[in-house]
């Protein structure tokens, strides 16, 4: 009983000194978070009324990238042309022809993972002071502010870990826009690449 009381007391003390937002990765842009999978992104995007956005001259809103298996092969020296990339690099969506959300992915052993979300407003229906007030009310006081250019930055306190690979989260507000980025630990990622099964060596003409 005494042990249970001490454990409960310690938990309450931690929550008082460090509220959940201080040690949980809970930044989101339009409901999208670092570490999400492609199906999670597409579900949230659809629920929020966004549709695929086709940039000028493009027939798709999808940009490809090497899959994790292909990245392993590249690490081992195999050449891979862009047209043969089978992984997911990014998706772009729009809402009411005025709001644009871009989602960047990186291929992990378990599949594509969100490592970036960008938001921009194409028209001038909202002033920057109003946008700044809304952002501040959602995310709280920024960790860093600069005047030239006008930018606010929120720093994540705890790494996200997926497939043994850590990601550090940062949220920035450049003017009337938001950039949520996840910095993938290169050492962890290279360790995962090196741990993958070696690709079979193909024959050559010489």
Helix fraction by DSSP (H/I, runs of at least 4): 25-40%
> What structural category characterises the helix and strand content?
alpha+beta
The average pLDDT value, as a whole number, equals 85
Uncertain residue ranges:
1-24
Total separate domains? 1
Task: Describe this protein's structure.
With 206 residues, the chain is α+β, with helices and mostly antiparallel strands. It contains 6 helices and 10 strands, in the order αααββαβββαβββββα. Strands 1, 2, 3, 4, 5, 6, 7, 8, 9 and 10 form a 10-stranded antiparallel β-sheet that branches. The protein has one domain.
Summarize the structure.
By secondary structure, this protein is of the alpha+beta class. It has one domain (24-195).
In terms of topology, how is this protein built?
Elements: H1 2-17, H2 20-23, H3 38-47, E1 51-52, E2 62-65, H4 68-75, E3 87-95, E4 99-108, E5 111-121, H5 128-139, E6 144-146, E7 151-155, E8 160-162, E9 165-174, E10 177-184, H6 186-195
Antiparallel strand pairs: 1-3, 2-3, 3-4, 4-5, 5-10, 6-7, 7-9, 8-9, 9-10
Which properties best describe this structure?
10-stranded antiparallel β-sheet, 32% strand
């Amino acid at each position: 009983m005494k042990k249970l009381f001490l454990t409960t007391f310690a938990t309450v003390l931690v929550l008082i000194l460090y509220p959940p937002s201080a040690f949980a990765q809970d930044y989101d842009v339009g409901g999208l978070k670092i570490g999400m999978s492609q199906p999670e992104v597409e579900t949230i995007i659809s629920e929020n009324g966004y549709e695929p956005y086709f940039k000028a001259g493009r027939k798709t809103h999808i940009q490809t990238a090497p899959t994790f298996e292909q990245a392993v092969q590249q690490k081992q020296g195999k050449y891979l042309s862009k047209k043969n990339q089978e992984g997911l690099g990014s998706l772009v969506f729009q809402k009411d022809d005025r709001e644009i959300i871009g989602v960047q992915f990186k291929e992990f052993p378990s599949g594509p993972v969100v490592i970036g979300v960008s938001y921009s407003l194409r028209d001038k229906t909202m002033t920057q002071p109003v946008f700044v007030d809304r952002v501040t009310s959602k995310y709280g006081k920024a960790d860093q502010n600069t005047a030239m250019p006008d930018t606010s930055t929120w720093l994540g306190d705890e790494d996200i870990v997926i497939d043994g690979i850590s990601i550090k989260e940062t949220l920035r507000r450049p003017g009337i826009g938001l950039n949520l980025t996840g910095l993938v630990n290169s050492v962890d990622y290279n360790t995962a690449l090196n741990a993958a099964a070696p690709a079979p060596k193909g024959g050559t003409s010489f």
